[in-house]
Amino acid sequence: MQAHREIDAMNPAQKIQLADEIFLHQPNLLASILVLSNIGVNMLQLEVPLHILLVTFQAMKRSGHTWPIVQEDVQEKCLQRLNRAHALQ
Question: Quick check: helix, strand or coil at residue 60?
Fold first, then answer.
């Protein structure tokens, strides 16, 4: 909850700075969001997953852990799992 409040309190320049930090530490996560525009997601719609990424990354930072780079294969497995769960509903 604290990470969400911190992101909501940031101005656009601070959010860009955080996105730059994400690029340095979790480039695959950022790329997964940015590529959505290539498949027809407009900028307004892109704000939702980008906001989720900012909050998640801020929470990761607050945890004090050093997080390994999330690899594309891990992301793909998670997406497949989500798709299977959604298909069961």
Answer: helix
**What three-state secondary structure class fits 18?**
helix
Output the pTM of the full model: 0.83
Distances (CA, A) of 7 to 17, 24, 43, 44, 71: 12, 18, 19, 17, 25
Rounded to 5 degrees, what are φ and ψ at 40?
Answer: 100, 5
* pLDDT tens digits for range 43-58: 999 999 999 999 999 9
For 60, the token pair is 């990761």
3-state SS, residue 71: coil
pLDDT digits (tens, 9 = 90+) for 25-44: 999 999 999 999 999 999 99
| Contact between residue 28 and residue 72 where contact means Cβ atoms under 8 Å apart | yes
Close Cβ partners of 70 (under 8 Å, ≥ 6 residues apart): 26, 28, 29
